[in-house]
Amino acid sequence: MVGPVPLVFSELITGDRVYGLACLWNLTVRRTKQGKPFYSLEFRDQTGTVLPAVMWDVDPDNQPEPPLVVLIEGDAGEFQGSPQIRVQALTPTREDIGPYLPGPYRPSEDLIEEFSGFIQLIEDDDLRELVQACLEATPGFWTAPAAIRFHGAYRGGLLEHTLNVMRVCLNAADIYAGRVNRDLLIATAALHDIGKSDAYDSPESRNPTEQERMVGHIVRGAMLVERVAEQIEYNGEIPLADVVHPIISHHGELEYGAPIVPGTAEAFILSGADTLDADVTGYFDMWRDSAEPSDWAYSNQGRRWVRRPAEPPID
Question: What span, in angstroms and rounded, lies between the C-alpha atoms of 102 and 99?
């Protein structure tokens, strides 16, 4: 007997009976004018297509937690001229979620190659050794997500985010040449989110580990750098406190989770670079992962309305 197969949303025709697998990507509990709860849903298929759906007669106290692969039973329909699935039944499964999830915008091997090349630009041998030793101590760095949601919430997202931050910091080092330490910017950009290497249950998880909930990635990252520095007997020209400071202050403000605010030029640059990539990548992620049919959508990350990206020019 053949079991349910993955759905391909582009093949659905209005009026079709829907029975198959997809990734439950988003779920919001809403209420009708009469106060009855219903689910506003978004599903993702293995091609990356996101399709909205609605499910009536639900129990909001027993709702599934996205993302996970579910068996959908329902009908293909339309709402305000756009495709929509009307779900009658939703059954969680143990199917592998990996094929349904987005990934980095560039191949992982290209990201690793460029990242490794940037590390070699660090001229201070002791500082370069510290960075490499920290990476060796955290093998999960290469596949971890950058966040639970909003930006880089996919396998390899942490590497991609870190590399983008390094690029911005390198450009800033050129702009402020002679007034900022290039080695320090490269090193702290590489290590600023090292505490996220094992912050989640798996590269496909949105569940923080116990240590992440209790301590947080910023403090855990700083603790890791100090521990590794002691192990390798770090004795670089740049004091260890100067290395740790941009890492521990990169969220910029206390209200955003920074244990301390930036107090050096390198810390200001790193904090700004981190915010810039989180905002811009989060913007592109939002549109890539959304079924919103209009040209404008509300961003929960920035708490603002944002416009759909323009189509890239044709070469």
Answer: 8
How much is the pLDDT for 313?
A: 57
Residue with tokens 């756009």: 82
The beta strand positions in the chain, using DSSP E, are 17-31, 37-44, 50-55, 68-79, 82-92, 296-299, 304-307
Tokens 């639900």 locate to 58
Q: Which tens digit of pLDDT belongs to each residue from 45-86?
A: 998 888 999 999 999 899 998 888 999 999 999 988 889 999
Residue 151: closest CA among 276, 291, 9, 35: 276
- 32 CB-contact burial (10 Å; exposed 0-12 / middle 13-18 / buried 19+): exposed
Give the DSSP letter string of 185-196: HHHHHHHTTGGG
Residues 6+ apart with CB under 8 A from 313: none
Distances from the Cα of 120 to the Cαs of 127, 182, 190, 191, in angstroms? 11, 12, 12, 14
Q: Could you give the domains of the chain?
A: 9-99 (2.40.50.140), 102-287 (1.10.3210)
